[in-house]
């Protein structure tokens, strides 16, 4: 289940890419789900746990992946209960956030209204209000109300 909280949250990881660079494990990188995310979001190929082939940058290290992919990988593998700032992701990460939340409880922090329109059957709990939203349009309505406060 996806849970969303807007605004500043105590103990949230505000800049997940930096946290990722200091905590990731090699096996996270070669996991098939990560390989698929890297291919989709960064248009790059995972060669090994330490090498990525980017059509834009050539051969790069894992630490040079986009902040969005790094945040997604943390959401997928970090089971510490930390809340990650999903505003470090672009809207092209939204479908991955939804996929991850189908398999585990996932709480994210947002500082903007993310476009979840690509998520089939979108639903989430809005922690600022406690309201359950059962569609993307309900999410938009609720998110805009939270932003107004």
What do these coordinates show?
The chain is of the alpha/beta class and 149 residues long. The chain contains six helices and eight strands, in the order βαααβββαβαβββα. The chain has helices spanning 16-23, 26-30, 32-42, 67-77, 94-103, 136-148; strands spanning 2-6, 45-48, 51-54, 58-60, 84-85, 106-110, 124-126, 131-133. A five-stranded mixed beta sheet has the order 5-6-1-7-8. Strands 2-3-4 form a three-stranded antiparallel beta sheet, with helices on one face. Helix 1 (16-23) crosses helix 4 (67-77) and helix 3 runs antiparallel to helix 4 (67-77). The mean pLDDT is 95.
Layout of helices and strands, plus pairs?
Elements: E1 2-6, H1 16-23, H2 26-30, H3 32-42, E2 45-48, E3 51-54, E4 58-60, H4 67-77, E5 84-85, H5 94-103, E6 106-110, E7 124-126, E8 131-133, H6 136-148
Parallel strand pairs: 1-6, 1-7, 5-6
Antiparallel strand pairs: 2-3, 3-4, 7-8
